[in-house]
């Protein structure tokens, strides 16, 4: 199978192709167009030409088409989720029940929202100020390989609904569902050129896209290192930068122990640990630390690792051999830094024959981790948990904030005052109290510090996809 670019509504071949591989089996799934600056130019030009007519459409008409795209995704959940699972190694239970349906919700939600964009008024005795919100123009949307379909739609839905046109570049490691999405958008009646999809590597296709002078806004989700490069290459544009994380999961001794345990296991091992908001630094108050560590390790040992297409699998393969090597390097590093390996490690898990060549990691838990160790400070992005003991609230807050990242955070306590104090003190874009990560499409999603700039979701998506204009009228 060959996956081509989608430019101006047409399947467009490339000069070169690369292979995308099933990380559970190493089977080649498709040859994928390897985009160049020339392909990017053609896609941006198509998006620029399509912009005036699309922006001029009444919001209610755009909404109909966007809603239709959501319906088509819902109709195609089985095929989309199976493709996503084969391409990324995310388990089928996650893609079919959560991630692909969430993609459809993104379109339904922003279809509704684009018909309700309102403004502000600032009256004075002599003048009336009011704001108008205009679409920005051509937007570059860049998605990573983890949760790629959902992440892409989280950008495409507001981008298009608010009247912009887009060039989407998916990760070279997970291009398949984006290509299906481009076709579904045409089937929904979204005009040619409004959504263009260019495949390829970051350097060859991503960089010319973000640097393109006709691109007005960049919505990027990916690593902090790439985010830094993009900001430098792009020049003056609107930005949303959703970057890496090393989010603290703090459990006080008055927490609901069983619920906190369930959530802690879920937040580090679901999505194969390849989750930007993973609770990868688990801080536990000393009075319950030993009991928690024992139960947590017990649970980690019981997780089913294996074929991501099997309903019972909890942890699938790492996306690539390169990423597998990176995760393993941290597992090797932990004991050298003085952490205790409580379970997992470098031995491969026992696997069914069909996936015995996959990029698997045994769920790993390090206990007695010091927050300054690299395994506690750097994003591993795999099924590797670090348990860190703390004495009291003040120490917990100090450890939580002693890191360059600031994406999400989790606090578990039955003491309401403490919950609010800690939530206010954490340096992170999001704080979940007595909860795992639960998404509401209205909430501001994003991080601070090295985890990003800007927020997306609900009216927060205005920041990148709409340009406010103030009109001041003399009375
Ligand atoms: P990555 O930064 O390597 O790549 C992300 C995308 O950027 C890919 O499409 C890649 O091709 C492209 N790219 C690479 N170099 C580029 C360049 N110079 N110019 C333009 N584009 C370029 O990230 P990844 O490994 O694909 O994804 C994992 C990272 O994403 C993790 O750090 C994770 O935390 C982060 N992430 C963040 C969020 C969030 O919402 N904050 C969500 C998911 C993933």
Automatic annotation (TrEMBL):
Annotated active site: 242
GO MF annotation terms: 5-carboxymethyl-2-hydroxymuconic-semialdehyde dehydrogenase activity; aldehyde dehydrogenase [NAD(P)+] activity
Signal peptide region: none
Coiled coil: none
Aldehyde dehydrogenase domain segment(s): 16-471
InterPro entries associated with the record: Ald_DH/histidinol_DH, Ald_DH_C, Ald_DH_CS_CYS, Ald_DH_CS_GLU, Ald_DH_N, Aldehyde_DH_dom, DH_HpaE
CDD domains linked to this entry: ALDH_F8_HMSADH (cd07093)
Example GO BP: 4-hydroxyphenylacetate catabolic process
Keywords: NAD, Oxidoreductase
Family named by the database record: Belongs to the aldehyde dehydrogenase family.
Name this protein carries in UniProt: 5-carboxymethyl-2-hydroxymuconate semialdehyde dehydrogenase
Protein source organism: Trinickia dinghuensis
The encoding gene: hpaE
